Amino acid sequence: IFERNYVKGSVVGKNYVGGFLGYSHYERPNVRFEDNYSLADIEGTNYLGGFAGRTTQLVSRYYFNGKIREQIEGAAGRVGGIAAEIRVAGDNSYPGLPNVYWNRDFSGVDTTDSGMGTGLNSSEAIMMDSYDGFDFGSTWNIKANSTPNLQWEDE
Prior knowledge:
Elements: E1 2-3, E2 6-7, E3 10-12, E4 15-18, E5 32-38, E6 41-44, E7 46-49, E8 52-55, E9 58-64, E10 68-70, E11 79-80, E12 83-86, E13 100-103, H1 104-107, E14 118-120, E15 140-141, E16 149-150
Parallel strand pairs: 1-5, 2-5, 3-6, 4-7, 5-9, 6-10, 7-11, 8-12, 9-13, 13-14
Antiparallel strand pairs: 15-16
């Protein structure tokens, strides 16, 4: 389990560029990402996403609040608020991405090609009630007019 991590800064590449990882092709059912976030700005040509360009991993309680920019504007590249492509091998009952969010206004991405995750507007992104499933008692904090952060950051 990869948990309680965050990314800040910029991530620049060509293909498979993401705010947390670029391309994940590990078909291991026990690898999960929980309670993580990214504020990184993403720039690339194809397969761009707030979490990953492409992933096969289960992700929950994650949010992305960075910008996503295609290097070649108007190119037919795949772009998603969370991921451009999500595939979980051998799992026909994949539940999607529970409790995974991105800021539509700030990122510049209104939708996610994979159809998974929930896009929030900037007003929703600073409200605790928008983050269903996030544990604000022991894992997450949210301060006035800000997006969530992990509690350990304030210790």
